[in-house]
Design goal:
Length: about 150
């Protein structure tokens, strides 16, 4: 394996005409009127299964746009409980991943970022119905602490 620093990689990419593709920066912002919850995990020791689960979305660049991959992960085991792939940001694939994860039980605390994908009433309803505590990081940081 060859190690290179960031500046060299930037120069090589620029020379080769390669650019990184990024999603629109507004995708991780909460929508007006969506509920935002406090971050509940500061200083919390993760000591057991189903104590904390989290979710996040990553954007996969494709020739015609992006595919969206959502994953649900258990913090204690770092096991990916479920995932779904979609070519749109509609709620259905996020809810499908959530419901699939519930086959493994349910967490005490659910953690996500504050993006509109996870602050919508449709997405939060199944969590509230099950009495799961909701925790939210700042934008785009749900899996950074795992």
């Amino acid at each position: 394996m060859l190690e290179v620093n960031r500046k060299r990689m930037q120069r090589l990419m620029r020379t080769a005409g390669i650019e990184a593709h990024y999603p629109e920066p507004t995708l991780s912002r909460p929508a007006p009127g969506h509920e935002i919850y406090p971050y509940l995990l500061r200083g919390v020791s993760i000591e057991r299964l189903n104590q904390v689960w989290s979710t996040d979305i990553t954007y996969i660049p494709m020739r015609g746009g992006f595919l969206y991959l959502v994953a649900v992960m258990a913090w204690y085991s770092r096991f990916v409980l479920s995932w779904e792939l979609s070519n749109t940001m509609e709620t259905g694939f996020r809810l499908a991943a959530l419901e699939a994860a519930f086959r493994f039980g349910q967490p005490e605390i659910w953690n996500s970022d504050q993006g509109s994908q996870f602050t919508s009433a449709d997405f939060l309803a199944p969590l509230k119905k099950r009495g799961i505590s909701i925790s939210m990081d700042g934008r785009g940081r749900a899996l950074d602490n795992v």
